[in-house]
Description:
- The protein is mainly α.
- The protein is 59% helix and 3% strand.
- The radius of gyration is 24 Å and the shape is globular.
- One iron/sulfur cluster binds at residues 203, 208-209, 212, 215-217, 241-242, 260, 262, 264-265.
Amino acid sequence: MTGPPAAHSPDTELEHLIEEEEFLEAQPFDLLTVPVIGPLLRWRHSRTFLQVPLFVVSIVMIFEGLLGPTLSPKNLATVLTWVHFRGALVLAILCAGNLFCLSCPFMLARNFMRKWIHPRFTWPRRLRNKWIPIGLFVAVLFCYELFGLWSSPWLTAWVIVGYFAAVLIVDGLFAHATFCKYVCPIGQFNFIASTASPLEVSVRDHEVCDGCRTKDCIRGRRELSSPLVILQRGCELALFQPAKVGNMDCTFCLDCVHACPHDNVGILSRLPGEELMSDPNRSGIGRFSRRNDIAALALVFCFGALMNAFGMVSPIYIVESWLKRTLQFQSQATALGILFAAVIVVEPALLLGLAAWITHAWAGVKNGWLAIAVRYAYALSPLGFAMWLAHYGYHFFTGLYTIIPVTQNAVARIGWPILGDPQWTLVGLPKTVVEPLEFGFLLLGLAGSILVAWRLAQEDSEKHPVRAFVPWGVMCAILFFCCVWLMTQPMDMRATMGAG
Ligand code: SF4
Ligand code: SF4
């Protein structure tokens, strides 16, 4: 990015004005320049300001989950966690970016702890990848189905307590943002989902970075007289702003914004999914095509969305019964385990293996099938995100108003009925409004995945881009129809009145 054209341009004044206008038009939108929102986010304590309300809500949810009503649609812990929180999270990622990590209540507790406890260890090198959080992510999806977390306020409360404990233990022992980068399954979900976001934390002008001597965005701003004293920490996730690409691994914590002495970091607009269309060397990450773990995360993200939705529609009961009858067992965990293995491991392995083999053999792409599969796995992220959006959006919108009677009930139970009698008839938006939204999300996701696959195919095969693209385009179409089929099945209204 360069500055406006110099005033001493030899061209006429009119040409100069046109150039200046073109320059201004080329500037991306920067959220930090928006009145009210910009100054609020640039305020040094903005993150804490956003975290405190979520922290208070988390504590209320823990108490409510342990001591409140046992019926999940009447309990704040289950309603907020499984109806509102998940929906709000994906909608925020769609409209802006990784706003949940920005206001993460677990990090508030962790930052408070680190005022006194300074971690002594660094995370082992061989664990600096996404395999642990991928395993945890699958485990969360599995336990959600097996133990019916949505129907148990008590278990939901313990999940929140467990999360706080895990954050404090990991980040109490290991330096930097170890939990966020290498452990947190919610964080990985947010990272991969926010590759489809319209905003990213990015430098405003690379020329300013070229001349920057201190690199405070990564090192942290230090006391001039005593460089060991850090006044503002730099990026704890090892993302060096000038070489950072996209939203992967970025928690939107804005430490880099506060640390940069040149005010050169903004929250800039970009084409959603753009970062998936190329394969540069990314700060703190490397090349996507060499990160089998992040490719696996993208696949678990996409096929996990299918599995999670499949767990809520009636055909799953038929399949489970058939499995138990045919294989002669009774265990629900075994039936679910087989289904998870089929949808999250076998299905992607077969589909991607076949598509990669066709790309190699038909389009003449030289890489081996595994390298091709890794490269194109990222193209499925937009469709996977669309499926999460359609699914969580469905629960969010159809259960939108349930928070009102549940809150009225919770306040009345503590002997303070100022909000009136619970209006249990309040539920949410009608399905006639929500269903078109769901299909709109899925169509957007399909368009995004197709565009990413096409751009990768163009890069991979100058001679036969169409041949390189076709297997992946067909795969996107197949997955899209699976998503549409799932969303047209009767779905359990979990954690809302009338839940199945
Ligand atoms: S973002 Fe700021 S601190 Fe980082 S290199 Fe650029 S100018 Fe320097
Ligand atoms: S400090 Fe790192 S994680 Fe935080 S917003 Fe900046 S780049 Fe993202």
